[in-house]
Design a protein that fits this description.
The complex is a heterotrimer. By secondary structure, chain A is α+β, with helices and mostly antiparallel strands. Chain A has nine helices and 14 strands. Chain A folds into three domains: about 150 residues, Beta-Lactamase (2-Layer Sandwich), CATH 3.30.450; about 80 residues; about 150 residues, Heat Shock Protein 90. Helices cover about 50% and strands about 20% of the residues of chain A. Chain A is rod-shaped. The two termini of chain A are about 20 Å apart. In chain B, helix 1 links the parallel strand 1 and strand 2. Chain B has two domains: about 120 residues, Rossmann fold; about 100 residues, Winged helix-like DNA-binding domain superfamily/Winged helix DNA-binding domain (Arc Repressor Mutant, subunit A). In chain B, helix 6 packs across helix 8. Chain B has eight helices and 13 strands. Chain B is an alpha/beta fold. Chain C is α/β, with parallel strands linked by helices. Chain C has two domains: about 190 residues, D-Maltodextrin-Binding Protein, domain 2; about 140 residues, Periplasmic binding protein-like II (D-Maltodextrin-Binding Protein, domain 2, 3-Layer(aba) Sandwich). Chain C is globular. Chains A and B meet through helix 4, helix 5, helix 6 and helix 7 of A and helix 1, helix 4 and helix 5 of B. Chain A: This is histidine kinase. Chain A: GO terms for molecular function: phosphorelay sensor kinase activity. Chain A: It is found in: Membrane. Chain A: Keywords: Kinase, Membrane, Phosphoprotein, Transferase, Transmembrane, Transmembrane helix, Two-component regulatory system.
């Protein structure tokens, strides 16, 4: 059998899976960014909100007393900053170029806040990044009001912790989403390819000679492929039957004239009396037989070649095959008073293979044995089931003499010892090729119980 | 025996007809399926020789139609397809045997005999001489309540003698009848077989005697 | 640097003696040598030696190679030492939660996390820098002599009512902290002012009855026990309990409306040199609950969640930036002004 080399490009399932997984990865990453962005913004807004509430509460507590700005720092203004986290808190109340109270080194906002518009800033203070809010509040009678700036700052460690939690959560959710989406991608890729797999297995299950059109349910996208496949199989079927027909036709063309000539020769032979004429006719008939046998074996060989390319694997009974062949050749053997002795087991011998080829092989081997057997002799067909299945045909003929036993199997080589026997030498070649195609071989050795040869078809056991 | 030969090649057909007649058989020839059907409708044949490739159709169709017939005529298919693909299906379709072109008439005769024997058809193939009967279908010799099974060549030789008791047959004629033309056979072989037959016939009402210089003949004891 | 200067001023007011080398007064100092050669753990603390010694010795039992240098200062001095002077101590232990909170908030404390600190209730630690190891209520101490068989008041309203009913009985015979001098007193007073409107009424009444002002719980308890005082308000409960073991003549009353619970805390200053031993000491302190012998010996009640479940009037003072509020100079000035207005009516 010749194996055609295919060059598979990447699998559709893989491509589909990678593409879907890629999309899932991009979506997961986008999801991650959005979730983290939104959540961090929310957390920042929360901190800004509390800071600004704190600053506003302080500003609300500012009052003017006797021209001086007085502050009764509300407890809640700072304590509210401790509700969400344990961040450090700084504040500064500033007016008239001096710090009224709080942390005098806490930076003032770069941009002076206007009333009702708090200014937010993020900067470094005392070793940590702080978020600072500043509000401006005029204090005092409208004429002599003094602008007081209230700045409240808080470190962002809590925010960072929150951000880490959010990032971890978002990563987890995105990873989960990615895994789920990837799993679904795998499933989707498999589901999408299921019709192709059904189609594949429907075609793969077929024997080599099953070239019926594929009728399995086909998704729309695959209809052109299946149509092409069916059309290809139709052409292949036509081509195969053409090949078979050609061989049959060739046989017919060669053999019919030979048959005519041979029959006429026989008739003529009857009518002739002179021994030298009769001898001439006999020679002619022998020549005809030889050429017909050669033609037959060449055609057989062609057919064997053709069939071994696509070897059928039928469930067979080797015993029945042997019986049929023996029955078939019984009449031929009878002509020479040769007894075919069948040494077979009672039970069927199950074997897988191409029935037609195996039968042809056995027939060739037995036919050879009959050809090379003397009159009034015996041919034994026996089956020895060892580790391999041995079908042996033992004759009492002249054997193969000193011929190179391996060369015997090569095409057109005949035994050194065939003399007057009509034969082309292809018989063993055909048998050998069929045996090889079935993973077996042809074994040739001398008959152990006297003159003759023992030719065996050796096939691997099931 | 009466044959129906269905063969479209006229030369081959006439050669086969002539050859079979030489052996004393009656042969009708049909060159198409239609003609074959006509023949089958009016006559009874012991055996049909069918070429599978016919101008007006495949011989298989005839096999198929014959298959239903309870009293069908046995069929030996003549095929040009030597080996592989056709054999099984031909037998499946109801052919009794087949023979590949070109064929040896001894082989054909052996196959015919085997087919008829398998079929168990009562054709008048028994010849009796002086209380000794030869059943050439069964391949048996009967006398004095004995049944003697004959080997193929013994049978074929005896047939020659039984069909023409008293007639002298030359050794070369006997060789023609006993051996396939492709076999190498010497006149010594005839002597060996005649010796065997004499042993078989020992005690029967017939014997084979030597006619010096001419050959052999069968006579009553 | 206004704030530290203020702290320094407070300290200056409280300090009787200021040495040239540093701006805080050491009240007591003790060196506990190690039995083996090893490290020295330098602790600055507001807890008296006799209170803390059993704990230090037990700690040394477990860590024999650690010598302990124990320096006792006032709460404000501790603040000054760490905040203004950057004095190098390995551990700062103080009853002034607000000052400890400020140290941590302003970046003077180190982070520390261990299984022991994680086991603390949330309210007992802050920023993984300030760790509470005792819970000490502020109680009312009443004289047995004065009350006899009479039922003492059980809440602030009853107390106010009692004082108003018979001012002549109580005039000059009630005591409380001088919040200007005592950090603990100031903390309790400010928390009181947050918790209840009754506080200012009580101060008003006490001011009219010419309340005696004290710097320390010890003196108040002594005067109550001797019968000089009828009652003392906002006395450190743990101290009262320890005194009750050796003196009689007074009773301890936890008022039923609410009881402020001060948490004694430890922190590791950023200037610490022996951080490892300081951490070991923090672990040791936060696990004080597992050493009843030390609790008994020191009379320091360990952190115990169940106390608060049993008595819902107990309120631990919450850590957080809120504690910074009363440290604000304007706020402090305003509060003290109010307090003086109430208590110093003459």
């Amino acid at each position: 059998m010749t194996a055609t080399k295919m060059h598979p490009t990447a699998s559709i399932r893989q491509n589909l899976f990678y593409q879907l997984a890629g999309v899932a990865a991009i979506l997961s990453f986008a999801f991650f960014l959005i979730v983290r962005g939104v959540a961090e913004q929310a957390a920042e807004m929360t901190q800004d909100g509390i800071l600004s509430a704190s600053a506003t509460a302080i500003a609300d507590a500012l009052r003017s007393e006797g021209g001086a700005v007085v502050l009764d720092l509300p407890y809640s203004a700072l304590s509210m900053l401790g509700t969400l986290n344990e961040d450090r808190v700084f504040y500064r109340i500033y007016t008239d170029q001096q710090t009224l109270t709080g942390y005098p080194d806490l930076p003032l906002p770069d941009e002076r806040p206007r009333r009702g518009e708090p200014v937010f800033e993020t900067h470094e203070f005392r070793g940590d990044e702080v978020r600072a809010v500043s509000v401006m509040r005029p204090v005092g009678a409208s004429g002599a009001a003094r602008n007081v700036i209230v700045t409240v700052a808080q470190t962002r460690l809590g925010l960072e912790a929150t951000s880490r939690t959010i990032t971890t959560t978002a990563t987890g959710v995105a990873a989960g989403f990615f895994l789920a989406a990837t799993g679904l991608s795998l499933w989707a890729a498999s589901a999408a390819l299921a019709p192709i797999e059904r189609l594949t297995s429907a075609v793969a299950r077929r024997g080599p000679y099953d070239l019926r059109p594929v009728t399995a349910d086909t998704p729309t996208e695959l209809v052109p492929l299946v149509d092409a496949l069916n059309s290809f199989m139709t052409r292949l079927r036509a081509s195969l039957s053409r090949t078979e027909d050609f061989i049959a036709e060739a046989a017919h063309r060669v053999r019919t004239p030979l048959a005519t000539v041979r029959t006429q020769a026989e008739v003529t032979h009857r009518k002739l009396n002179k021994p030298e004429h009769r001898l001439a006719i006999r020679e002619m008939i022998r020549a005809i037989d030889e050429s017909s046998r050669s033609a037959g074996q060449m055609l057989d060989h062609a057919m064997v070649k053709f069939r071994t390319d696509t070897l059928a694997s039928d469930q067979l009974d080797m015993r029945a095959l042997i019986d049929e062949v023996c029955d078939r050749l019984g009449a031929t053997a009878d002509l020479k008073d040769i007894d075919i002795i069948r040494d077979l087991p009672d039970d069927p011998i199950p074997i897988h293979g191409d029935g037609i080829l195996l039968q042809a092989t056995l027939q060739n081997l037995l036919d050879n044995a009959i050809k090379y057997s003397p009159e009034d002799s015996r041919i034994t067909v026996s089956v020895t089931p060892n580790d391999a299945l041995w079908v042996s045909i033992t004759d009492e003929g002249r054997g193969f003499g000193d011929a190179d036993l391996t060369r015997l199997k090569t095409r057109y080589t005949r035994g050194a010892n065939v003399g007057d026997i009509v034969g082309s030498g292809l018989g063993l070649t055909i048998a050998d090729e069929v045996a090889s195609a079935h993973g077996g071989r042809i074994d040739i050795k001398p008959n152990e119980n006297g003159a003759g040869a023992c030719v065996s078809l050796v096939l691997p056991r099931e | 025996m009466r044959f129906l030969l269905i063969e479209d090649n006229p030369k081959l057909a006439s050669a086969i007809v002539e050859r079979l007649r030489l052996d004393g058989h009656a042969v009708d020839h049909a060159d198409t399926l239609d003609a074959a059907h006509s023949c089958l409708a009016v006559a009874r044949y012991d055996l049909m020789l069918l070429d599978i490739m016919l101008p007006d159709g495949d011989g298989r169709a005839l096999l198929e139609s014959q298959r239903q017939d309870t009293n069908r005529c046995p069929v030996i298919v003549i095929t040009a397809r030597s080996a592989v693909s056709d054999r099984v299906s031909l037998l499946d379709l109801g052919a009794d045997d087949y023979i590949t072109k070109p064929f040896d008439f001894s082989e054909l005769e052996a196959r015919c005999r085997a087919v008829l024997r398998r079929q168990g058809r009562a054709t008048d193939n028994r010849i009796s001489i002086a209380g000794t009967t030869l059943d050439s279908t069964a391949g048996e010799l009967l006398f004095d309540g004995q049944v003697i099974a004959l080997r193929n060549r013994e049978l074929r030789l005896l047939e020659v003698f039984f069909k023409a008791p008293g007639q002298v047959f030359s050794k070369s004629h006997l060789i023609d009848r006993m051996f396939s033309l492709s076999d190498e056979a010497s006149e010594n072989a005839i002597e060996v077989y005649v010796a065997r037959l004499r042993k078989r016939l020992d005690g029967s009402g017939t014997k084979i005697e030597t006619v010096r210089g001419l050959g052999y003949r069968m006579v009553a004891v | 640097m206004r704030f530290p200067r203020l702290a320094a001023r407070i300290i200056a007011a409280l300090t009787l003696l200021t040495t040239a080398s540093h701006g805080y007064e050491v009240e007591q100092q003790m060196h506990y040598p190690s039995t083996q050669d090893g490290t020295v753990l330098r602790i600055i603390s507001t807890a008296d030696l006799n209170v803390f010694e059993p704990i230090l010795l037990a700690f040394q039992d477990m860590h024999p190679s650690v010598a302990v240098d124990y320096v006792v200062v006032e709460t404000a001095d501790l603040m000054h030492a760490i905040y203004a002077e950057g004095a190098s101590f390995d551990l700062a232990i103080s009853s002034a939660m607000d000052l400890q909170t400020k140290l941590a908030n302003d970046g003077f404390a180190q982070d520390y996390t261990s299984p022991a600190t994680q086991a603390l209730p949330d309210w007992a630690r802050w920023r993984n820098q300030v760790f509470a190891f005792t819970q000490e209520p502020a109680v009312l101490v009443v004289s047995d002599d004065f009350f006899g068989t009479e039922h003492p008041p059980t809440n602030r309203d009853e107390l106010i009512a009692l004082l108003r009913e018979s001012p002549e009985r109580f005039r000059g015979r009630i005591g409380t902290y001088d919040v200007r001098r005592s950090g603990f007193g100031y903390l309790m007073a400010t928390q009181d002012s947050r918790n209840s409107e009754a506080y200012w009424r009580l101060m008003e009444v006490m001011g009219r009855l010419e309340a005696e002002l004290y710097c320390c719980s010890g003196e108040m308890i002594r005067d109550v026990a001797s019968g000089n005082l009828a009652l003392a308000y906002n006395v450190l409960g743990s101290y009262a309990t320890s005194q009750l073991a050796i003196t009689d003549g007074f009773r301890i009353i936890e008022l039923s409306d609410y009881v402020n619970v001060m948490l004694r805390t430890a922190l590791i200053p950023v200037t610490a040199e022996n951080v490892a031993d300081a951490q070991a000491m923090i672990d040791f302190l936060t696990m004080l609950e597992t050493r009843p012998d030390l609790i008994a010996a020191s009379n320091l009640p360990s952190i115990a969640q169940e106390t608060f479940r049993a008595n819902t009037a107990l309120r631990p003072i919450r850590f957080g930036p809120g504690l910074l509020v009363f440290l604000d100079q304007l706020k402090r000035a305003a509060f003290l002004r109010n307090w003086e207005d109430s208590l110093l009516q003459n």
